[in-house]
Amino acid sequence: MTWTQFSLGALVLLPMLGAAVAMLLPHRGRRVLGVGTAVVIAALTVPVLVTVTAGELTELVLGGFDAPLGIHLRGDGLAAVFLGATSLVGLILTSYAAVLPKSTGTYLSSTAWVPGHPGFWPLWLGCWSGLNAVYLSGDLFNLYVALELVGLTAVALVALGGRSSWEPALRYLFIAVLGSLMFLAGVGLLASVTGTLDLQQTRQALEELDDPTLSLLALTLMTMGLGMKIALLPMHRWLVPAHSSAPGVVSPILSGLVIKAALVVLLRCWLWAVPVLPGAEWLTWLLGGLGAAAVVIGSVLALRQDRLKPLVAYSTVAQIGYWFLAFPLLLPGENDDAALASGAYSAVIALALGHALAKAGLFTAAGFLKDRCGTDEIEALRGAGAHHPTLILAMGLCAVGLLGLPISLGFTGKWQLATAAVAAEHWWLILVLGAGTLLSAAYLLRGIAPLLMQAEVDDDAPAANPVTIRERVGEFAVLALGVATLATGLLGVWLSDLLEVGSWW
Amino acid sequence: MISPLDITLGLAVLAVTGLSLIPRSRLVISMGFLVLGVLAALVWLRLDALDVALAEAAIGTGLLSGLIVWLAVRSPVPPGAGAMETSPRLPWLRPAIGVLAGASMTVVVASVWLRAEHHLPQWREAAESQLPDTGVEHPITGVLLAFRAYDTLLESGILMLTAAAVLALSRNGGLSAEGAHRLGVHQTYVPMPPVPSALSWAARLLAPPLVLLGLWLLFAGSTDSGGAFQSGAVLAAALILLRSAQVDISSLTAHWLRPLLVGGVVVFISAGLVGPLLGLPWLSWEPEWAFAAVLSVEILLTAGITAGLYALFLTLENPEGVR
Known about the structure:
Chain A is mainly α. Chain A has helices at residues 3-22, 27-53, 77-99, 120-136, 140-159, 166-194, 199-207, 213-230, 239-245, 250-273, 281-303, 308-325, 327-330, 338-373, 389-403, 409-423, 427-452, 469-487, 492-500; strands at residues 58-61, 72-75, 106-108, 113-115. In chain A, a hairpin with a 4-residue loop joins strand 3 (106-108) and strand 4. Chain B contains eleven helices and no strands. Chain A: One of its GO terms (biological process) is ATP synthesis coupled electron transport.
C-alpha cells in the first residue's frame, strides 16, 4: 500500500467525511473545516500527479476484492489531470466562499432572507467527493453512483440561491435524474452481455462479441444521458437558468467542474469501456454536428443577453460544443492513423481544462459583481470596473483563455484540434473554430467592455460603497484563477505526457 | 412458458401506471402510485428477488407513498395543473410525438435485447468462494457491505447529503437557532394537523410492531434477506406514524437527528480507514473482525437511513409557507 494508493481512496472518502462532520458544526466551524479539507485534498492530489508524471498507473483494489467482484480505482492520466484541475479550482473557490460567505446563497431565518448559507459546506464537500470519485472510478456502476452524487449535490447547491432559484433547481433535478437513468440503462445492457462492470473487462468482453448492435445501443443511450448532463445543444435549456440563478460561488463550481464530470464519464465510455464499433460513425458525426451547432448558436445567444450571468452561462453552452467537435476525429477509422485520434483526445482535454479554469474565474467575477451591486444587468454595471481594477484584470485573463489566445490551454486545445482537422482534411472544423472564436470575442467584449466605460456612479449606489478587505481578498482569488488560466498554457507538453499514462490506445 | 399470472400482473402494472399518470387530482394519482408500488413488489417476488421486493415495498411503496399522500392531502390540486401548455393549433402534437418516440424506443431496445446473447455475471463464483471471509452469510449483504462496500458507502453519502439538502432549504439553513441547541427545522415544532382518534390509536398500536419488524430486518440481514435500507425505511415509517398520531418525539429530533444522520457515514469511513492503517487497501475487513465491523456499520447505517428518511418527511412543509 503506497502513498499514492492511499491517496486514491482518501481523495473520495476524506471530503465525504468532511461533509458529514460539517453537518454537526455551526456556520463558522463549517467554513474553517471546509478550507482545511480543501487543503488536505490538494495535498493528496500531489502524490497522484507525481506518480503519473513518472509514467506509472496506480491501481487500488478496494477491500482486496479483484474485479469483477470488487471495484478498482485507477489513477491514470485522465484522472490525474482532472484531479489536478479540480483541486486547484476547488481550493481557490473554497477560500473565496470562506472569505465572502455572502456568495454561498441566502437562507430563510424566522423573519427574513439572510445572506451566507451554512448548507453550502456539506453539499460542496460532498460534491467534491463525487467529482473525485468520477475521475478515479474504474467500474461502470460505480461511475453511475458517483455521477448521482455529483448531480444531486449540484442541484441542491443551485437551490441555495433563494426563492428564485428553486424552479431552475427542480428543472435541473429532472434532467439530471433522466440523464442518469439513461446512463444506467446503458450500463445494464452492457453488463447483460459482458457479465462484468469493470471498464477494462467490459472492453475485453465486447471485443470478443460478434454482434455490435447491443453495444451500439448501449453507447447511444449512455451518450444521450450524458449529453443531457453536459448540456449539449438541443438539451441545454436547463443550464442557463440553473447556472445563472445559482449563488455566486456555486455557478463557477457548476460550470467549471460539475459538467466536466459528465464529460469524463462520456470519454470513459467511448474510449475505455466500448471498443471501436463498426456503425458508430454516424453517432460521432451527429455529436460533431451538434457540437458545431452549439458553438455557433450558443455564441449568438450569449451575444443577445442583457445580464452578465446568463451571458456567461450561454458562453458555457458554446464552449461545450468545442469538446464534441472533436468526436468525429476521436475514433481511429480504417484510413486515419492513431496519432490523429490521440491529438484530438488531448485537444478535448486541454479545451475542457482551460474552460474549467477560465469559466470558474469569469463566473466568480460575475457573481462577485452581482453580490456587490445587487444586479447583474450589464447596463447597470457600467463603470463598475473603476472600483475593481483587480477584478477586471482577472476577467480579462479569463477571457483570453475562453477565446483561445496564446498562451492559455484554450489555445493549446484549439491548435491541436485544428492540426488534427487539417490532417484528416475536415476543413469545416476550421471554419467552425474560426467562427466560434470571433463570436466569443464579440460576446466577451459585450460583457466586459461596459464595466470599463466612464460612467457617473451615484454616491448612494451599492457600487460606490468602499471595498472591504474581504472583498479585496475575494478579488485576488478571482485573479488567481485568471493567472492560472494563462500559466497552465505553459503545461501543454506535460499534459500530453500525463495523458499517455493508462490511455486507451 | 409464461404463466397467465405473469401476464395479468404485467397488464395490471401498465394499467395502474396509466392511472397514476393521467388524472389531474393528486389524491387519485397517489392512490394509483400506492397500488403500483404493491404490484411492483409482487413482480419482484415473481422474479425471485426477495431483497428487491422488500426494498420496493418498504421504500417505494411505504415511504414514498406516505410522502405523496401527505402532499395530496395538504394541497389536492397541483399548482402546475394545466401549466404545461398544449399548443393551441395542434393539441395532439406533443402527446403524439411522445407516444411515437416511446414506442419506437421500446421496439428498438426490445428487439436488440431479445437478439443479444446474454451472459451470467462473472462474479458469481468469486462471490461464493470469498463470502466466508466477509463475516456475513447472505450473499447480497456480502455484496453490499464487503465486495462493493464502496458503492454502498457512496450511496449512504448520497442519502445523507439529500437530508443535508432538505435541511438546508428549511428555516435557518438547517442550523440550530442562535443560542439554542435544537435543530432549526421549524416543522418539528409546528403541530401536525389533527387526526381522528381511531387513526391515532391505530398508529400508536402499529408503531411497536413496526419497530420490531425494522430491527428484525436489520439483524436478519447478515444471514437472510433484509438489511440496512429496508430496515431504515420501516423504522422511519414508524417515526412518521408516531408523529402523525401526535406523539411528541420532537426532543428526539431536536438533539439526535443530525448526529444519527451522519453517524453511519462517519463510522463507515473510519472502519474503511482501518485497512490503510494496517497496510491493507481501503475498506478491507480482516476475517477476525469483519463481522464486528460489518455489524456496527450496518446498525449505524440503519440509524442514518432512518434519520435521513424521517428528515425528508419533516421538511416537506414549505419553509415560507408556515409563519
